[in-house]
What does this fold into?
Amino acid sequence: MATTLARADYRTRLQTILPKLVLSPSLALILLFVYGFILFTIYLSFTDSRMLPSFGWVGFENYDKLFRLRHWSVAVSNLAIFSTLYISICIVIGLALAIFLDQKIRGEGVLRPIYLYPMALSFIVTGTAWKWLLDPGIGLENTMHLWGWDSFTFNWIKDRNNAIYTIVLAAVWQTSGFVMAMFLAGLRGIDNEMLKAAQIDGASNFQLYRRIIIPQLRPAFLSAFVILAHLSIKSYDLIIALTGGGPGRATEVPATFMYSYTFTRNQMGIGASSAVIMLMTIAAIMIPYLYAELREKD
Amino acid sequence: MAVASVETSIRTGSMTRVFLYLVLILFSLFYLLPFVVMVLNSLKPLSEITGGNMMALPEVWTVEPWISAWATAQIGIEPTGLSPYFWNSIKMVVPAVAISTMLGALNGYVLTKWRFRGDTIFFGLMLFACFIPFQIVLIPMARVLGLTGLAGSTPGLVLVHVVYGLGFTTLYFRNYYMAFPTELVRAAQIDGAGFFNIFWRILLPSSGPIIVVSVIWQFTNIWNDFLFGASFADLDSQPMTVALNNLVSSSTGVKEYNVHFAGAIIAALPTLVVYIVAGRYFVRGLMAGSVKG
Amino acid sequence: MSEITLRNVSKIYGSDDAAVNNINLDIKDGEFMVLLGPSGCGKSTTLRMIAGLESITAGDIFIDGKLINDIDPAERDLAIVFQNYALYPHMNVAANLAFGLKLRKVPKDQIESRILKTANTLGISELLTRRPRELSGGQQQRVALGRAMVREPVAFLFDEPLSNLDAKLRATMRTELVKLHNDLGTTIIHVTHDQVEAMTMGDRICIMRKGIIEQVGKPLEVYRNPANIFVAGFLASPPMNLIEGSFEQEGDSLKIEVSGITLTIPAHFANAYGNVHSRKDVILGIRPEDIYTDSNDGRYTCMETQVVAVEALGPETIMVVKLPGGKEISARLDRSFRAPIGSALKLYADIERMHLFDPETEKAIVAR
It folds into this structure.
């Protein structure tokens, strides 16, 4: 009797610590590799690190320098243009396609994967494809000329003023189908009975969407916005593959700025401070969102 | 697909429908065009590309560019083709996906079925980690990999991808297990099953859909990653994306577009196949997982 | 042998009020104990604490005198049947039954014979190879029961197992469970919010509200002598009529004024309640089944009422009537009895069977 009791006791105690034991490797990894690293980078942004981390404290000097750099302000304004257009176009196209696809469309099963597949591709692949399509010498412009439309010009990718829009184009191509899927799921989740009730109340299709359906897609809008905002701030690969930041600095964004200052220009302190600014931007969007999500659930 | 089954009760007139189909088909052309053009031109000799119309079908069909891209093209300084990098990617992706999915499943299990004080904080920390810009961790990561001797190695990349994928896999499994009836866990407890027994015998057998989601998500993300590969890999561990970028943007010699396209398609093929085979489950799970939260 | 004893048991979640507040309960060996109460009364929490699925905030739980507070649920040797059955969806019926035995390392041939025996008893032998989703609700219910039985536990815990069944099946299962209990003789704790289940199945019932036990006793005892207003109003359907009133002392006889009616309390009755003379306010309880359409040779007290609603249920007629003071009460009358709505109706109450409650403490005023 005594032994079974002791055994039970041991087992019980094991059962109560096991869950925490199982979580601990993940917790350790996240604490070190995410939060520890964030702190380290924040610290570096206040030091005179150049090629290698060094620990001479310089206060806000790096931030001061960063905000004076023309290169940085170009990168920031490029990102502002890029993310505004990218997010809004993706949402408009995604919502429109989702609504259209939701009208008992024959062949929906074929269309949907076509809209979605670019999401599976690497930005490097997307960049390779679009770089060439947009190349005036052999791409779309050349084709139009060969087809006899000689006045057609589409050389944005070589044009300092317009190159950023080619990034938007390729990025929209890659993710708008995914946004469509998010909205479609939202649409399919809306209670049909309610729509019928509204129809009986005399709502036209347009009113139905404007007054009943779209307002109910609020969570999908929010998720789409958060995901797209986060993607746009992080986007690095696509720019590297499509324009390499050029022509000149026409498509430089903070992500490419950070990389080149840190690893090729040996200005690690400034690179770190630019990374901190990026993190703070994302945090300003994500933390309220995550906070609301988690609170709702508990 | 998730999204399927329930149809709306909206009725549309026939003019509207013509317009709808027109728009939908135009957009499908927009999405298909770059890839189709890439495939077509990867089957042409180079002269047809530089001198001809990209929209035209090949006059001479050739798989030469594919063979070159795979086996002989100049990548960086070596004429190895993409094949060694393809295997590098495989060696990196498989363990990283397996480990991060397993850990995510266990985390999700604990966070929903063995709740404790502070579990929401833990989850919030994991969740925020999904969304950090990786630039914030690049510098210390390079340093830690260097200090531990993992720099430039496949295990180093596996570690990186496990760490930064963990938030997502945890999120997926947590949301999935939230909907898993807790009474089944209770019943198993009463039946005498312990912590791991319940996980193995009760939860895991019902986790098929979310495992698919987690694996696809991790697979595509890690396979398609460029930043970490470019930052932390050396020649022996460089993944496919980095090699492709080297191939495409090498500034020496003639630009062999057909080879570039073949290479790009080869690089895209694994994730495309995964999408085509299991895409429907992925979208379903993603909707259940991340959007509804 | 399996007595279950709860001593000063409490459960508090976070900073909320206690879900279970300092309860004491002795469940005897082989007893069928029903925990009855509205949702949120703490009955399920109590069951889960006994099972070990919830930790105990304060107090002790004993099984056969052994303290089990900190013992793992698996080691308590109890079996639960859940409301939604909680069958393992990826295992067939036989595997569902075998799961607990395998984990306990019961020899294989024994597992097989026990499964067959249990399946026979419950009439689910032909379902053994099916998956839970291929079963009807009633079949799933039996399998859940089988999974509990096959373990041969020291006690069964039933967490509202019948509430997902349709009315007819529920009635059948009630009698079957009682029969099963008679055959097995194992202690059963059955949680329900259905007072019919409580009345028909329990050896004793324990009525709970807001985390405390209101009354424990044999079903008919509790029915006859509800300890307080809550129990009086909860048990039976329609429940006891509860009417606020006040005492009037008129010479020797004691009268109660309720909703415009004056009831004379029989002398022998009033004397038994010696302590009521000093009171003013009282709540009078009278069951609908103690109201009649005739005076039984003047032994019952006449009430002038007005018909508000008539529910002809078939076996009986429930009449809702209004007393002169406006209070509505119900009466359970003969199935053939009818009266038009709005009409005046004379009804007769069997005052001997009335109950008196203290409006402040809500407790029954018990005869000495």
Residues 1-6 of chain A have pLDDT under 50 and may be disordered. The domain at 70-297 of chain A is CATH 1.10.3720.10 (MetI-like fold).
